[in-house]
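Hi F.,

I've been meaning to write this up properly since the lab meeting, where we talked about keeping a consistent format for the predictions we share between groups. The idea is simple: the sequence comes first, exactly as it goes in, then the structure tokens exactly as they come out, then a line or two of notes. No screenshots and no reformatting. I'm using this chain as the first example so we have something concrete to point to.
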Amino acid sequence: MAERYTDWCILVDGKPIPSDGITAMDWLKVDTNRVVDLYETDDVSVSTVFCGIDQTFGIGDRPPEWFETLVRGGPLSWEIERYETIEQARKGHAAMVERVKGTA
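Output, unedited:
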């Protein structure tokens, strides 16, 4: 299992790197590298991004979840999946896009 971080991180070369909250929030405002992938149609968007903070918030005995895929619009609207690594996020994004296409 990957090392747990309870504080903010920035993304460097596809890996979460620990950072203080102010630096991370500034980075999240200006760095477009946080978008892993984006799929859009007229009715639906599927976005996968680096969140900057572990989405498990250290609760439970799970690996940290730094990346999130969110669907907006269509039958799967507000469907969310989260991932530990950028590789998982890329695969999860592709799988979610296929799910969205299958519900059209």
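Notes:
The radius of gyration is 14 Å.
The CA atoms of residues 12 and 33 lie 9 Å apart.

If this format works for you, I'll send the rest the same way.

G.
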